[in-house]
Amino acid sequence: MSSSNRLKQITHHLTTNMTELGSISIFKEVPQAPPDAIFHLTAQYKADTNPNKINIGVGAFRTEELKPYILPVVKKAKAILHNDETLDHEYLPIAGTKSFTNAAVRLILGENSPAIKENRFAGVQTISGTGANHTGAMFLSHFYHKSKKCYISNPTWANHRSIFSLVGFEVEEYPYWNPETRGLNYEGLLQTMRTAPEGSIFVLHACAHNPTGVDPTRDQWKGIADVMREKNHFPFFDCAYQGFASGDLDNDAWAVRYFVEQGFELFVCQSFAKNFGLYGERAGNLTIVAKSPEDANRVLSQIEKLQRAEISNPPAFGSRIVDIVLNDKALYQEWTENLKYMSHRIIEMRKALHHHLVELKTPGTWNHITDQIGMFSFTGLKTPQVKVLREKYHIYLTDNGRISMAGVSSTNVAYLAKAIDDVVRHVSV
């Protein structure tokens, strides 16, 4: 074979191999992930052209006219920011603005908290409550050595499992919802705590449990604390609805404050999405309570190191709004009134839905709708019934029967009740 033919053959071989290599993606074996349930539900709702459609899936407050609500106090804080010529767009400190994190800690722990008085706390600004959960979980995955088991409630906010699983914890569930009473499975919860390995992490909803809207009573919280102390478990509180649940900031923080008074070390994840209406601004805080100031400072130093690698610095805009309001007496007072308006509207819609279902004599008991608290109500509806609500009535809610009371108004509550009455009577489960 001549040298020129040999060269042609080699060139053809290389070209063929390169073509074959280029035609096969290195991502070929990556499976398609299912769409996020809530955001997919919202997309379906938006695409629906039926004039009677209702979106009771998304957890965002709506006015009586079903419009997004910008808190009046937030508008005032934004105006203050707009007119502050000293502000710039420089990086925030890694752990966030100190005036913001200290105010967030005071909000959840209370001015007279022993942890604050003894200076054995720290605060880290996070990417809303989700970021606080992740940051806290990431720290514990590196430095918590008592147990690698994390317990989340059943049912719970879906991200809890994902967050703790992704950082290496073995995630188990503790019973929470009792379908028979449509309330708290208190004994089942305690039994799981008693049998869990000593030093396990338990994720607890501080108030307005998502998705059930069922909270322990104060006496039940005391019982939970007793068992957790006996087993040396670590309380990991998630608080997304302080002030939004009952309209009372102190009432909604009671469980966290009780645990601190009982001497627990703990984490509290705080979100300002719901109670400030800052959903897209991602303002959150991770509050750390330790045994001593030295312990708190060491934890903070390691969390700063983790945060530097992940997000470098937290975003400024939303936290500046919260910072202004929490540190101004007049604006703070106005904020509490805004919270009362939001929580009151939710409570009134619970009463209205319950009234219509009772009036229709819908089979079953419906007291749980008014007994539950916060944005969500766990109706007890089953997946086949939810499917009919969506397809026949254009009512969009999650498959587990959770409804966002924020999507209910005086204009659609009667329609919603009649649809629920229909599926309860006629859809077999």
Write up what this structure looks like.
This protein has 429 residues and is α/β, with parallel strands linked by helices. 49% of the residues lie in helices and 13% in strands. It contains 18 helices and 13 strands. The chain has helices spanning 3-22, 37-47, 72-82, 98-109, 114-117, 128-143, 158-166, 186-195, 218-230, 249-252, 254-261, 273-276, 293-310, 317-326, 329-359, 367-371, 383-393, 413-426, and strands at residues 54-55, 121-127, 149-154, 170-175, 177-178, 183-184, 201-205, 234-239, 266-271, 283-289, 376-378, 395-396, 402-404. The strands form 4 sheets. The chain has a 7-stranded mixed β-sheet with strand order 2-10-9-8-7-3-4, with helices on both faces. Strands 1-12 form a two-stranded parallel sheet. Helix 15 crosses helix 18. The longest helix has 31 residues, at 329-359. It is globular and about 65 Å long.
